[in-house]
């Protein structure tokens, strides 16, 4: 299972809530390219055309818009869950499930439930 984080996380310090969710789910953290470009996660965490192709059972995309270069790396996931406050984000075109809301509300609430 992958919990993948995108630019919606805003600041490096906010990554803590992503790692907390991944810990609660026994999942691995991956990301979109801007997170790696910012130096917040190493290159081997990047999913996409110029990153890794992944095929997990569950891929949770948090604050990721769903650009074609990102989708190229994760469209093979069995179940795609998107958390994005923009209902028109392209990630919802391929997501199996979605939560259209503020990730800063949703992610800690999910972590609490899974813990
Ligand atoms: C040649 C080339 C290769 C590339 N290779 C890759 C690649 O391998 N991997 C890759 O990922 N990208 C790649 N890109 C970049 C790609 O085009 C996108 O720019 C990138 O994927 C966007 O990352 P993102 O979704 O994290 O950011 P954004 O597109 O900025 O999306 C951020 C999303 O977060 C949401 N959001 C913001 N705040 C909140 C909040 N509080 N709560 C919930 N949602 C929120 C927004 O609605 C938005 O949809 C490549 C580009 C090029 C030109």
Automatic annotation (TrEMBL):
<protein>
    <submittedName>
        <fullName>Electron transfer flavoprotein subunit alpha/FixB family protein</fullName>
    </submittedName>
</protein>
<dbReference type="Pfam" id="PF00766">
    <property type="entry name" value="ETF_alpha"/>
</dbReference>
<feature type="domain" description="Electron transfer flavoprotein alpha subunit C-terminal">
    <location>
        <begin position="2"/>
        <end position="75"/>
    </location>
</feature>
<dbReference type="InterPro" id="IPR014731">
    <property type="entry name" value="ETF_asu_C"/>
</dbReference>
<dbReference type="InterPro" id="IPR029035">
    <property type="entry name" value="DHS-like_NAD/FAD-binding_dom"/>
</dbReference>
<dbReference type="InterPro" id="IPR001308">
    <property type="entry name" value="ETF_a/FixB"/>
</dbReference>
